[in-house]
Structure formats: structure tokens, C-alpha cells
């Protein structure tokens, strides 16, 4: 029995989801430190390898968001990148402060090559205390810190918006099979949608009635037991 469980554990441990691990990193109460500790607790022999793999995927994905941000803000990737001196001498900063500062930062980053990214800043910051933020809305955290983390905030919100289960979509397809049958396959899309919503409402009502009946029977059973004891 133990060997069978070990085989199943090894299978799921090898096939763990990188994207879900990234989602945990973007919880400011967890970050990479907690995941490293969990990996080490589960399997010390592979924890360092999995942590390194996670960092690699995280950095690669972030670079894609960086390229998208720079490209959309600066136009063509083959455009000329001015030096800091060119930017200052070209026009007063007061004319377009945001644009000039953006180009200045881009120029400094390309010339010096040592500018810390938003990802570096986020990972190096202290984690939030879980006791102080027990009910933190992580998506709202990244929305409020958009100005601080820029492209990283966009990446975090995209990842955190991914559903962690496919049950909802599978359920929708299952209900759809009850609506579209070989004998009823020419319904208009709006009629199919109306039928799906009706079936879902009926199912919800049935489930609610079942819960109420279960609760009522439980209460009545406890009352009968009390009366028998008396």
C-alpha cells in the first residue's frame, strides 16, 4: 500500500503545475521563500532543482512582459535609442515629462545593464505578515501597486486570473449535452443559452432543496433522540 501511494505521489510531484507555483509567488505573504521551504519539506532531493526551474520559467515569462511593455511604449524594436545626453538636450523635460523620463530610464538601462527589474524588487522585499493580513485580496494588492511594479503587476494579474480547476467548464459541456441532442440540434444560439441558464437554475434549486431536507432531517433526528433519552 505504501509503495503504491509513493508511486502516485511521485507521479503528481513530477507533474506539478509551474503556473500555480507562480501564482503562489505573487502572493506577497508567500513569495519564493515559502515555496522553497515547502519543496524542501516534500522532497529534499529535488527541491533545489524545482526551485531553479521555477525561477527560470518566472524570469523567462517576465522578460516577455518586459518586451511587450517596451515595444508598445517605444514603437518599433529597431528604432533608435537616444542617450541620456540626447534626451536632455533634445527638449525641456517640462514639455512631456512622462515620455522623457520613460525614455531616459530605458536609455540608462540599456547603457548600464545593471538596472534592477520590478521582479527583482518584489522578490527582495520582505514578505507581508500573514497574521496581519489574513484575508488579503491578492488581486487587489497588485491593482493598488500597479504604479510600483508596472509590467510585473500586469503579469501577476494575468496569472492570478487563471482558474485553478476545469470543473466549471466541464460542467458546462456536460449540461450542453443535455440541451443539444441528435433530435434537437438546430436550436438558435440564444435559445441554447436560455436553456442552459434554465437548467443551471433548476439544478441549483434542487441542490438547495436537498440541503434543506438534509438539515431538517438532521434536526428532527436529534430531537427524537433527545426525547428518547428523556
From TrEMBL:
Sequence segments annotated as region (Disordered): 68-92, 211-230
Domain hAT-like transposase RNase-H fold: 1-65
SUPFAM superfamilies, per database record: Ribonuclease H-like
Pfam families assigned: Dimer_Tnp_hAT, hAT-like_RNase-H
Domain HAT C-terminal dimerisation: 119-198
Annotated Low complexity bias: 71-84
One MF annotation (Gene Ontology) recorded for this entry: DNA binding
InterPro entries reported in the protein's UniProt record: hAT-like_transposase_RNase-H, HATC_C_dom, RNaseH-like_sf
Protein name, UniProt field: Zinc finger BED domain-containing protein DAYSLEEPER-like
Amino acid at each position: 500500500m505504501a509503495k503504491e501511494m509513493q508511486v502516485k505521489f511521485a507521479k503528481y510531484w513530477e507533474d506539478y503545475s509551474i503556473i500555480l507555483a507562480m501564482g503562489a509567488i505573487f502572493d506577497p505573504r508567500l513569495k519564493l521563500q515559502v515555496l522553497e521551504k515547502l519543496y524542501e519539506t516534500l522532497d529534499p532531493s529535488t527541491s533545489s532543482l524545482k526551485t531553479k526551474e521555477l525561477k527560470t520559467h518566472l524570469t523567462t515569462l517576465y522578460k516577455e512582459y518586459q518586451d511587450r511593455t517596451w515595444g508598445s511604449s517605444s514603437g518599433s524594436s529597431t528604432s533608435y535609442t537616444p542617450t541620456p545626453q540626447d534626451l536632455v538636450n533634445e527638449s525641456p523635460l517640462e514639455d512631456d515629462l512622462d515620455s522623457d523620463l520613460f525614455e531616459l530610464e530605458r536609455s540608462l538601462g540599456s547603457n548600464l545593464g545593471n538596472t534592477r527589474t520590478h521582479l527583482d524588487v518584489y522578490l527582495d522585499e520582505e514578505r507581508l505578515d500573514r497574521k496581519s493580513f489574513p484575508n488579503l485580496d491578492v488581486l487587489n494588492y497588485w491593482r493598488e501597486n500597479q504604479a510600483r511594479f508596472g509590467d510585473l503587476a500586469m503579469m501577476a494579474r494575468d496569472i492570478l486570473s487563471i482558474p485553478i480547476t476545469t470543473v466549471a467548464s466541464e460542467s458546462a459541456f456536460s449540461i450542453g449535452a443535455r440541451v443539444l441532442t441528435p433530435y434537437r440540434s438546430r436550436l438558435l444560439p440564444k435559445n441554447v443559452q436560455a436553456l442552459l441558464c434554465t437548467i443551471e437554475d433548476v439544478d441549483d434549486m434542487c441542490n438547495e432543496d436537498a440541503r434543506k431536507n438534509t438539515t431538517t432531517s438532521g434536526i428532527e433526528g436529534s430531537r427524537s433522540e433527545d426525547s428518547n433519552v428523556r
